[in-house]
Specification:
Elements lengths: L4 E9 L6 E10 L5 E8 L7 E8 L5 E6 L5 H7 L5 H19 L7 H5 L8 H6 L12 E3 L14 E6 L11 E9 L4 E3 L8 E3 L4 E11 L10 E6 L3 H11 L1 H13 L1 H9 L1 H19 L4 H6 L8 E7 L3 E8 L4 H17 L3 E2 L6 E2 L3 E9 L5 E3 L9 E9 L19 E9 L5 H7 L9
Parallel strand pairs: 7-11
Antiparallel strand pairs: 1-2, 2-3, 3-4, 4-5, 6-9, 8-11, 8-17, 9-10, 12-13, 14-20, 15-16, 17-18, 19-20
Helix pairs in contact: 5-6
Length: about 450
């Protein structure tokens, strides 16, 4: 009996969390009366198909294969495990739209319900029932935390600022400068899936929304950055190493022990050597001191310590912090207005945002910081001789209204202070990796980050 396949395209719109994606569903009836469904990601024309998932059922509608391929993105893996996701809904709709055509000719005796069940793969309750799992029984060690399950919107967030300059004439010159812009980002999904081969923890993609407007200031003195990685001294004495090996591979350890027991001559020969006797006695003392919670029994007895095999091991990457200090004194009323708006740009941007519910407050705006150098065409580029800065959070701003120690104002309508001083602390959102140097640095002779 021949098989027949039908293809149905559909589009998934994830909104601000991921945009639109195009998919094809192929439903094939099988000669044994079962059915197979394959899910492909495509381009807008339906070409360049990439297999995402394959589900197969037998003639009784029982799932016999349910495989999500390594081509699936984090978001696709998450969506395929959620019954109500837009992707899962699109799959079900596509399958339903082709099943009638396939069944109309009674091809291979395949039933409508059998074809329909190919839409249920990856954790659907119907599949759990087929696998004999009852309600409340754990299906697998997978879970997903989806930001879309929370209804959180920001009550007030300003998204349009002016392009502000101090001093004002820096706007019309090719002077090297430092530029600050703002953006905000969405939450992201967190998933845990033991079936993944690379890493069971999966993190979704954040959506970044830029805020119009910027602040441009002259590059100040005392420019510096500190790149650091945290290391920790670690030890592993021979007894600990041996016990760890037993814990990691108990079957192999049991087999080795059984071999020694079955060959007592081997044990006698091993203990007859100086090294073997030392190991046996050290093990006894080590276990004794561990049992009583002591830590110095071996040096008390032997006058020596177990070789700690000490070495320096990576503990964690570090997030870089940057300090900026700017002094601003207005030379006319327009520049005074610019200074007041610049200070507000940073203060308002770094403030937390109210949400539509008193249960949550929302993350402040985040900042992009660029050292810019003028080029021969009158434009600007990343400064190749100063380290770049990744996206940052502004954690503090200190504003001095009387940095000269005396209260003095101009005689304008706003009573602008004659001088202001702001000190700001920024912290990068993510640690540096070598990938940043390879992908985000244009020239080989740039410092990079």
């Amino acid at each position: 009996m021949a098989s027949e396949s039908t293809t149905k395209p559909f589009v998934v719109d994830r909104g601000t969390s991921g945009g639109k994606s195009n998919y094809n569903v192929d439903v094939t009836t099988l000669a044994n009366g079962g059915a197979e469904r394959e899910l492909y990601r495509t381009d807008a024309s339906g070409n360049n198909r990439v297999l995402i998932q394959r589900v197969r059922v037998d003639k009784d509608g029982k799932i016999t294969a349910d495989d999500i391929t390594s081509n699936a993105t984090v978001d696709e893996r998450r969506d395929l495990k959620r019954v109500s996701s837009t992707l899962k809904t699109g799959v079900k709709t596509a399958v339903n739209s082709v099943k009638d055509d396939l069944v109309a000719n009674n091809i291979d005796g395949t039933t409508a319900s059998t074809i329909e069940k190919t839409a249920f793969g990856s954790g659907n309750e119907a599949i759990n029932e087929q696998r004999g799992l009852t309600a409340g029984e754990p299906v697998n060690a997978n879970f997903d935390l989806d930001p879309n399950s929370f209804d959180i919107t920001v009550s007030d967030r300003k998204t349009n600022y002016e392009n502000l300059f101090y001093p004002q004439d820096i706007a019309t010159t090719g002077q090297d400068r430092i530029k600050f812009t703002m953006f905000f980002q969405s939450g992201r999904s967190v998933g845990f899936d033991l079936e993944r081969g690379d890493n069971p923890l999966s993190l979704g993609t954040r959506t970044i929304t830029n805020i119009s407007g910027s602040v441009t200031l002259p590059i100040q003195g005392d420019i510096k950055d500190t790149n650091s990685v945290e290391y920790d001294r670690a030890t592993l004495n021979p007894i600990q190493g041996g016990l760890a090996s037993v814990a990691l591979n108990p079957q192999a350890a049991a087999k080795a022990i059984a071999g020694v027991i079955n060959s007592p001559n081997k044990l006698t020969d091993a203990l007859s050597t100086q090294e073997g006797s030392n190991i046996f006695n050290a093990l006894k003392v080590f276990l004794a001191q561990s049992a009583v919670g002591g830590s110095s029994l071996i040096p008390r007895v032997t006058g020596a310590i177990l070789n700690p095999n000490i070495e320096l091991l990576l503990k964690a990457p570090q997030l870089r912090t940057f300090q900026f200090a700017f002094n601003m004194s207005a030379r006319d009323e327009d520049e005074a207005r610019q200074i007041r708006k610049i200070i507000r740009f940073f203060k308002q941007g770094m403030s937390v945002k109210r949400s539509n519910t008193s249960l949550f407050i929302v993350t402040p705006n985040l900042f992009k910081i660029q050292y810019l150098a003028g080029n021969d065409e009158g434009g600007f580029r990343d400064h190749p001789s100063i380290g770049k800065i990744k996206n940052c959070a502004l954690s503090s701003i200190n504003t001095q209204y009387t940095p000269d120690g005396t209260y003095m104002t101009y005689d304008d309508d706003a009573r602008t202070m004659t001088s202001y001083s702001i000190n700001m602390t920024f912290t990068e959102l993510e640690p540096l990796t070598e990938t940043d140097y390879i992908q985000d640095v244009a020239r080989d002779d740039e410092i990079g980050f």
